[in-house]
Amino acid sequence: xxxxxxxxxxxxxxxxxxxxxxxxxAGVTLADNSLLSAGPRTxxxxxxxxxxxxxxxxxxxAKLRYGTLSASSGEIARGTPGAMRIGTPTAxxxxxxxxxxxRVAQ
Length: 106
What we know:
Blueprint: E1 17-19, E2 26-29, E3 35-38, E4 43-52, E5 57-72, H1 75-79, E6 84-87, E7 92-95, E8 99-104
């Protein structure tokens, strides 16, 4: 795929990969107001995101391949606990509505 530098307001699609450098970081606000913050040396893919704002329901799956991810759950986790998921090479986290930090060694 193509590699593009990130910019404020850039639209992301399913399957996009966010990769930060040694001194980089990236923040993503999803349509349900979930917040994902990737720290330095991080690779994170957005594998699934569906959201119905009228029902406050949906599902999301982001995979942290390596690095650090700080997240704050949004309406999906509040409306359907466990429907926001974060995958790592060794585990799958089902978020039930909270703030959390995940680190995966490279």
